Amino acid sequence: MKSKGFSILALIIIASMVLAACAQQAPETVVVTKEVEGERVEVVVTATPEAEAAEPVTWYAYSTTDIPTLDPQIGEDVVSINHIENLFVHLTNVDLATNEVVPEAATSWDISDDGLTYTFTLRTDIPWVKYNPVTGETTQEVDEEGNPRFVTAADFEYGIKRACDPEIGSYYSTVIAPQVKGCSDALFADEPSQELFDAIGVTAVADDTLVIELEFPASFFLTMTPMWTLAATPSWAIEEHGEDWVEAGTIVTNGRYVLAEWVHNVRRTMLRNPLMPADMYGDGNVERLITNVVPDTSTGYALWLNGEVETSGIPSEELEAHLAQFADETEQVADLAVFYIAYRMTKEPFDNVHVRRAFGAAFDRELYIETVRQGQGLPMSHFAPPGIFGAPPIDEVGVGFDPEFARAEMEAAGYPNCEGFPQVTLLGYSGQSTLNWIEFAAAQWEENLGCDASTIILEQQPFAELLAATAADTPDSDAPHMWTLGWGPDYADENNWVGDVLWCQTDNRSKRECNEIDDMIVEAREETDPAVRVELYREIEEAFFGPEGEYPFFPIFLRIEFVAQHTWLTGNRALFGGSQWYNWTIDQAAQLAARG
After folding, report:
1. Which residues lie closer than 8 Å to 568 by C-beta, 6 or more apart?
2. pLDDT tens figures, 441-470
3. How far apart are CA 29 and CA 52, in angstroms?
4. Architecture of domain 336-560
5. How far apart are CA 558 and CA 537, in angstroms?
6. pTM over 0.70
7. Which of 397, 418, 394 has the alpha carbon at shortest distance from 406?
8. Structure confidence by residue, pLDDT tens digits, 121-145
9. Where are the domains positioned within the chain?
10. Cα separations (Å) of 493 from 184, 392, 500?
11. Class of the CATH-defined domain 29-280
């Protein structure tokens, strides 16, 4: 889940594009999605490029997963969010050097004295476009009367209100709903109605003026405005094509790139949008991105060694040799993502808080980072990492690893030395690194709690399937007892952690019941005094992860990992939101020389 659920490093590769005013070179054959006998299917067609051109600057990369969605209001994972960032402009953006909120579609904004009303002034020259995979053309959308369509405040109003619609099933709806006036009323209504939907506090006053009203003076709201969930979306395309509006040949976008091809689970290609206003083009020179889907990071790393991709994760078994041989082609990346193992709190035996505490305290975080992750991380005993407003000091809150405490908790639960403990499942997402993780966890519980290896059934699924298996509406009988997940920052406030992940009225995969901790979460996000907020968040983290904590999951590590990156690729990684590929640069001469 961005959960931002997380795949460790899924990036991109690239196929072929020519950038002209309105025409780009298409491949000789492409795959598009068409309707055939009432069904949407992928069809191979012959392309008819209109122009020949030199090899475009291309970023070649790989991914270990398909894109779950390209819909801005539905995207919730890092792969989707990365692509959405480049296909769509957002209300604001994040400066990669300072992490400050800067203009994007909005050129300026005013905040009322009471902090409840935000008025955004928008630019009116960003075109809605569609790419034709057959002709290689990017053309501007027109309305029913033939007038060119540009992004307006009404498109933002439509997109944000759409995020408040329970029918779209978006995780991030629950993230924005508490702040936007009327959004929660529409999202959680027992009987949804047009009246509730119309009452949502988002109004297009004019084509260039958008007003957003808040439920309370959320001091962090401006830092949320770069989020994809608040992006403008094309109502006419969604109404015409339904869920298929995001497919290649159908999707309407407004960002720095267009979607040229998307062969599900095989390959996707993105090309520069030649109709983007020049001052929004970005500082980079990457004209084409091709992502090939591969089975695992080891396969991707082999491609990197062969010069076939620009960047790669490094398999743990290759890390020592890689650092010795490629020190000048290695980046160390700290992205503030915190990984954890979660419990289904309504499923025995994890409905018992003592069991949850025991399993969390029996996991040696430092040993895991040292031996399995080879030093790539920091141990975490609470949730929010350093650098996030309101996060407590990294080593002052939470139990962390304490085997004596863990054994005492197991005894309090009625399972001394794990006697009589039932067989349980631990579900991890696909990949060798996650398998190493869950195998280590099972070994820890055997060593520190006495739970025989046969007690913990280890399973793995692709990330999207794991999210479905652990969704709050999945019956307990079909859900695993435990699962792996990670959370990376959307905005720099503790509310993005305990509020957007652990609050009982979010997606709530653990199915925890609302209690006094949730009252504190609401109090903390509505508080205007920063010092009071900091103290409240410390109390909240202690209430979740301290000795008397509730433990809906147990935090393990903050990710700091080595990434293989060829020297001809340069740019800054985004800490919040999706990767800004339009700001990266490739030394094409060096790249092509290495590729032979």
Report:
1. 310, 586, 587, 588, 590, 591, 594
2. 999 999 999 999 899 999 999 888 998 999
3. 15
4. Roll (3.10)
5. 19
6. yes
7. 418
8. 999 999 999 999 999 999 999 999 9
9. 29-280, 336-560
10. 20, 12, 10
11. alpha beta
